[in-house]
Amino acid sequence: MLEVARLTVRHGKHKAVEAASLTVAASEIVVILGANGAGKSTLLSAIAGLLPCDPGARVMLSGLELTGLLPSAIVEAGAVLVPEGRGLFGDLSVRENLRLGAFASRAREDEAENRERVLRLFPRLAERRWHKARNLGGGEQMMLAIGRALMAAPNLLLLDEPSVGLSPLLAGELFRALDRIRADGISVLLVEQNARKSLAIADRGYLMEYGRIVESGRADALAVDPAVQRAFPGAPR
Ligand code: ATP
User: What's the CATH number for 1-78+155-161+187-237?
Assistant: First the structure.
């Protein structure tokens, strides 16, 4: 459903991503692994339309060309990013943050239904609905950021290091939630440094080094791949 080909993104003269190609199929969880500075966030931001890419790239979502579209048009096409740092509105309540997620016209009609679905996925958000986002714990903030993205009724969720700052227990809960989101028919492309937990739930993965995709394969094969072992000494053998 997502096809990225020859994507090059520069920060000034520096090529942060060089000729990256990847795919995500329907109802698939795909993880992009890589050390700090490998270019993972840049790649995800370019897919979401937040950074321009060099000519010659092709980003297709379910047959629609995304290259050159505004970020808002990419949301309307069905790809929604949960950025690093989560991008919540701290002074707004949980309920209000969720409402903002339904701003996309593709989602307005089904707002109530989508909210029900989000609250079933994350019942804790229902309990905390009147609390300001800034007063939530780290795990709750991540649930809210994902919940807000789901309010836009995406076909593809783009997640930038969702497990950062979470305890192992909460990270486990997060990855289980991604599994349930996939079961709902939503594809997930996530960037992670937690190789072990993300490969345990992913179908496939890619490894980035210095802006290039250097390995790809099924998650179980990547978990024992020497290049992944080198990049993430904690990954399972
Ligand atoms: P991290 O896990 O630290 O977020 P990453 O793999 O997501 O790392 P990017 O944030 O995409 O990597 O950064 C890729 C390269 O681009 C790095 O060398 C980084 O220093 C550089 N870079 C990132 N953002 C900018 C920017 N706004 N201006 C200039 N250079 C940048």
Answer: 3.40.50.300
